[in-house]
Amino acid sequence: MSVNAASGSLRRVPFLYLRHGETDWNREDRAQGQIDIPLNERGQAQAAEAARALAGVEITTILSSPLSRALDTARAVERVVGAPLHVMDVLKECAWGEMEGSIKGPWYEDWKSGRNTPKGAESYPEFQARMIDGFNAALAYPGPVLIVGHGGTFGTLRGPCGLDPNYSIPNATPVRLTPPESGDIWQLEELSPPS
User: Fold this and answer.
1) Does 87 map to a domain?
2) Taking the CB of residue 181, how many other CB atoms lie within 10 A of it?
3) How does 24-42 read in b/e, with b if 16+ C-beta sit within 10 Å?
4) CATH number at residue 33
5) Bridge-partner residues for 61, per DSSP?
6) Rounded-to-5 percentages of helix, strand, coil across the chain
7) 93 is catalytic
8) What kind and span of H or E run contains 88?
9) Is residue 91 part of a domain?
10) How would you write the pLDDT of the chain (195 residues) with one tens digit per residue?
11) How are beta strands 187-190 and 175-178 bridged, if at all?
12) Which domain holds residue 43?
């Protein structure tokens, strides 16, 4: 069914989500935002491992942020599963303005809570509305869909999907999200590579 992004609603269809592999800035807890920071060596290995975890999973379409850390992760999966890959600009991480490149700290919590928006940044409500629109556009593609993006973009799903507000998706850990038959709490399942 279609939904209204303004209400924070998401199309109620199952999908997969994959956060990009590690970057040096992830390791340093820096706000990457829309700065195009590449995967580090560990992140490249994580992307390959995520592709192994998704090898036997039905995926019809892969949608990715254009930032190289996400796109390179998506390409690793594409090589294994063979589904077509589409790049969607709307799936980019949040623009944090003057705070991009800085260590996350109190400013980040103030931004998430809506108390303060750094100069040149998207406000949290603006970011969440953009992401709900982006996810809904991605979920209109033939499914099952895999969306490859960022930690912040996934974070915007916690409220609309009724997920644990403290859950932070690990780098390169694919998850399956399944809408409830009734109610508002989606099921989240982390997928592991075969042993």
Assistant:
1) yes
2) 6
3) ebbeeebbbbbbebebbeb
4) 3.40.50.1240
5) 145
6) 35, 15, 50
7) yes
8) none
9) yes
10) 233 333 468 999 999 999 999 999 999 999 999 999 999 999 999 999 999 999 999 999 999 999 999 999 999 999 999 999 999 999 999 999 999 999 999 999 999 888 999 999 999 999 999 999 999 999 999 999 999 999 999 999 999 999 998 899 999 999 999 999 988 899 999 998 775
11) antiparallel
12) 10-141+155-190
Q: How far apart are CA 55 and CA 58, in angstroms?
A: 8
Query: Using only C-alpha atoms, what is the Rg of the chain?
Result: 16
Q: Quote the pLDDT of residue 9.
A: 87
- Please state, in angstroms and rounded to a whole number, the distance separating the CA atoms of residues 141 and 145: 7
Question: Hey, how many other C-beta atoms are within 10 angstroms of the C-beta on 192?
Answer: 12
Q: What is the count of structural domains for the chain? A: 1
Would residue 129 count as lying in a domain?
yes
Query: How confident is the model at residue 195, as a pLDDT?
Result: 56
| Active-site hit among 93, 100, 122, 150 | 93
| Tokens 């192994």 found at | 52
Helices (H), 100-143: 106-113, 124-138
pTM of the predicted protein model: 0.93
Examine residue 195 and state whether it is found in any structural domain, yes or no: no
Q: Which residues pair with 176 in a beta bridge?
A: 16, 189
